[in-house]
Amino acid sequence: MGSKRKQSGSHVDKNSLEYREKRQKNNNAVKRSRDKTKQRSQEANQRVNQLMHENEHLKSTVDSMTRELQYLKDMLICQAGSQEYLNETTETALEEILRDDAPTDLDRISSVLAEMEKMKDMRK
């Protein structure tokens, strides 16, 4: 049993108009396919570069926010150094905030700081 594909050879006239048209059509299809593959590859590379840039920006934002959070926690610790500025609610909130595994809620930290400042002002 042989191959079902026609063997190139003796009966194909490479100079015929039909053959040249088929070859041209095939060459165009191959070029389009290669161009499309190249385009997809370029788009994928651009997307990778964009995501890498975005990732770096997000890492920078996380680092900045982590430093800010640590600064606020340090301020709370300093303010709480004197128990006279804490009431029971504020002290509980402060303990929750200062746990290492606590969610980082900057609004809550700010409100505790504000409450401590109010108490400090009231006691003066």
| Class from secondary-structure proportions | mainly alpha
**How many angstroms does the end-to-end distance come to?**
106 Å
Mean pLDDT level: 78
Shape: rod-shaped
Q: Could you give the count of β-strands? A: 0
Q: Residue share in helices? A: over 70%
**Which runs of at least 5 residues are low in confidence (pLDDT < 50)?**
none
The major pleated sheet works out as: none
Radius of gyration: 36 Å
Q: What count of structural domains?
A: 1
Tally the helices.
3
Strand content: under 5%
Element-level helix/strand string:
HHH
Q: How would you describe the overall organization of this protein?
A:
- The chain has 124 residues and is an all-alpha fold.
- 74% of the residues lie in helices and 0% in strands.
- It contains 3 helices and no strands.
- α2 packs antiparallel against α3 (106-123).
- The N and C termini lie far apart (106 Å).
